Amino acid sequence: TSDVEQWLDSRHICQCSKESDLRLLRTAFNYAVRQEIIPTSPLQRVELGRRPKRNGVDVFTPEEAARLMSVASDESKAAFAILLFAGIRPKELTRLTWENIRDGFIHLTPAITKTYQVRNVEIEENLAAWLAAYPPKDPQGPIIPLNWIRKCVKIRKQAGLSRRTDAARHSYATYHLTKYRDKGLLEANMGHVKGSDMLMRHYRAAATPAEAAAYWSIMPPSANFPTN
Q1: Cα separation, 83 vs 33, whole angstroms
Q2: Would you tell me the crossing angle of helices 74-86 and 148-158 to the nearest 10 degrees?
Q3: Do residues 189 and 87 lie in contact, with contact meaning Cβ atoms separated by under 8 Å?
Q4: pLDDT at 42 over 90
Q5: What is the model's pTM?
């Protein structure tokens, strides 16, 4: 069981992909049980670690998001900030370089995006602060550090947020819509087809204006912004 859990954690940064692999593994192990190759399936004891969802969508509270940023290593803070505050897909993040961040936008080319469509995501004030506080060693290099998946799993575990790999993108969608109340803008930032029900059905949870304000106020310790 522990071998299966470690393999799943090391292989995936997306919950839906993990569930797909689990379905395939379940078929194989059930067959092995029927053939009396193994006495029981190890999947019976696999702990998925999924938390109760808010309105059916897994969203980080502002406190959880702040804890994740606090626990993240310096070399990983920019990557986690982009996940939380720009809603970039985890797979897209692995293809991003610092050259894609300029002029107040994250520029996603067809080679980066899931849909092979160009997308430009506005950089929020708090994300700009995180990127400025933790600049790249290589201005042309990748956003993620070496051994990213292993480090990502470790950081999430330290923050007590294991196996909630879709929550960052869901959180961005939820708190962005609560703050701006602009569904069209959010769909463009998320890479969804305009007018589809994808955003409202699968990415948005209920949040209060106070929660959204707290989320977008998560700043690096070095940030020093005027109060007026």
Answers
A1: 40
A2: 80
A3: yes
A4: no
A5: 0.74
